[in-house]
Amino acid sequence: MAALETVELEHLPATHTVLLALYRNVANTAFLQEQLLSRNADFEYAFVDASTVASRFQLLSAVYKAIAAEMAGSMRTPNVHSEVVVSLNSNNNISEAYRRYGVQPSTKDVVVVKVLISREGSPSSLSPEDVGKHLQTHVQGESVSCSDEELAKVTDWPKLRKYHKLNGLPWIEAIKDEKAKKNELEMLIISAMAMRGT
Amino acid sequence: MAPLYALGCEGSANKLGIGVISHDPTTNTTRILSNVRHTFNSPPGTGFLPKDTAAHHRAHFVSVAREALRAAGLTDPARELSCICYTRGPGMGAPLTSTAVAARTLAALWGLDLVGVNHCVGHIEMGRFITGAANPVVLYVSGGNTQVIAYAEQRYRIFGETLDIAVGNCIDRFARTLQIPNDPFPGYNVEQVAKKAFYTVAADRTTKTPRDPVLLDLPYAVKGMDCSFSGILGAADLQAAQMQKQDALLAAGGALKEGEQRITREDLCFTLQEVVFAMLVEITERAMAHVGSKQVLVVGGVGCNERLQEMMGLMARDRGGSVYATDERFCIDNGIMIGLAGLLAWETGFRTPFEESTCTQRFRTDEVHIKWRTD
Amino acid sequence: MATPEPAAAIQPPTPPADSASTHEFPLPPILQQPSAAGPAELITQGAEGRLYRTSWLTPTRPCALKHRPSKPYRHPTLDARLTRHRILSEVRILQKCRREGVAVPALYGIDESQGVLSMEWVPGRPVRVEVNEFLRRRAEKYPHSDGGRGRDEVARDEEGAAPLVGLMRRIGEAVGKLHKAGIVHGDLTTSNMMVRPWEKDKGPVNGHHADGQAEEAEHSLEGEIVVIDFGLASQGSADEDRAVDLYVLERAFGSTHPRAEALFTVVLEAYKDTFKVAPVVLKKLEDVRMRGRKRSMLG
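^ Those are the sequences you sent over. The predicted structure of the assembly is below.
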């Protein structure tokens, strides 16, 4: 079984540790959303609807943007995890971002992002092992590797194109090679995400 | 081989400059023997007109030439000189013509070759000699020209230039707006006013208190390696008009609106310099980045400005290079720069035949074949 | 000729000493963080800022990071105003280009307060380098030419000129596409265009095809033109601005590649076919040229 993955990110300060997991066919998405809505401190995670993730690169772009905002003190949401969710959006509408990219009762597959932060000599109270155990206990789904291959199985491209206003671009439709086309779309989404908030 | 001597005559604008230069082709040693200049200054608030300037040059040519020869220790110019060099262009038609006619007369009188010289090339060659900068990016800034130039394959190629008026013209005209005197030259006086933005003087004129100058709002207009100054001049003139309204209001015992910035002559001159010089430094840096050069040479009258030199120096330092600038003797239009560029051309066999010894208001820097450079 | 006994020569001022040639620059904060790919490599110190090659998110994904440090020569107020304005304008323009299918780098991250812009790394080399190498190879091939002094220009129909002509055509098309998308670059030079090699295993993107010729050819002029550095670009569709854009490129081309100057007409011919009002822009270019001549001669 694919466990929780610790992701090494470039230019990430040593104070921050990024953990990543992908769960397929999650049975208790309503429960997970409920924990977020009730601000249950034990559930400080970004639970992302995996169908809105185009690629691992796009996902990590959002994670990095959220961490950068956390470090710069320029977050627009309560914590780095909610910030990951809004960073997937390409506009500044926060509640829309939660609705679109965050876990909903109807969500089928869930990407979990956890950022452990140690501050001023006090390390994070949680270890990656603790997080792994906690998720294993509370997420009722099939844990798979959070790879491009697995993510590609669940990506809902029509939805993503709608969310990021990527319809009606004739030159995109003219690209015959599906891989090239998706690559262009992915880059457009990442660029749009990078621009959010500027 | 003995050194060669040339007389250079410059009169493309309001300065009449005549000087003697020597160059030894075998050792490539250059010496300035004399550098005499007489400037026509019009009253504050006015610019120099072609007709009056030409009359000035005609009136002073003989005495300036005599002084140049005397100072250089020449007693028999017909035998001692190799050629008479004059500014063929670019510049103002009437003063160019006066100077060309006088130079032609000397050549005929002494039976010497005439060499017509491009004014901009004169500045560049003088700057290279004075500073020892071998192959720099050249910023040529004066009342009539604003160009960023780099050498390639026997041409001085223009990388960037003004899209409308010259930077010196912008500053001079703003000086007129503020009734700043033209003597010794308007840009110098604007610079002195700008320096006063750094302190306030007590009413009894005994104590100075340092202050931070206020950067007023002026547009910034750089397009690629080109820039534009007319919009900035227009905006500065508007600010000056606003200042005069404030002056009148305050004199009448009124008060400025809440939060309204009090505009002063000092801050205006300061801002104008900061903005237009930042633009010049930026386009110069872009040209340096483009050709991969670390040296920058500033020539032309505006090149004397200490703030411009300082800003250029800061930029060059960050690029691991340095700025080469000269002082007013060589920066401002002068005769020896024409003499030097002319002599270098003469040594390669270049002559301006008598019947072709005209002058022209329009003469691009990159039209001249720089035969004497082989790098 | 007699040698006069001259007066003491006038002494010129002393030239300055060159600053230390290895100048250490402060890195932007992001590049002070750990990276498995190693330290960032300074690629160019353009006028706009410094371009680093580094990695983005993973060590294997290269990234072009543009840092606009504050300019010490500029008044701080003016500096902050220009830096912020330019970085935001640049990202908006890049995104607009990408949406319109113009080949430009994708955006990875923006930190306008630090003056940092991270973008996709465009493989390949600048047009300037490729053209100069082409000209150098040509000079080696025809050593009878006059050693590179002045007149030795490439003719369009001469043997072996086809790849260069093809490149010029693609430059014209790229600029046309850019203008069609409502963008004026503001600093078109051959340093601001990359030749991105065609990707063999990838389908054609952005309308360009890898033709059979490219596969067998060893020359490096083959590839897609990717326009970079939109630091001075603006949005607009005024014929005048477009014409000035072409004029800037024309002059930059002439001064950078004097020996290929005659081929610039190929750029303009290709440009003419890219969008409806292109012929109008070219007409305007003639006016701009005329003005250019006039102004630099008088002032």
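The longest strand of chain B covers residues 29-39. Residues 265-291 of chain B form the longest helix (27 residues).

Shout if you want it in another format.
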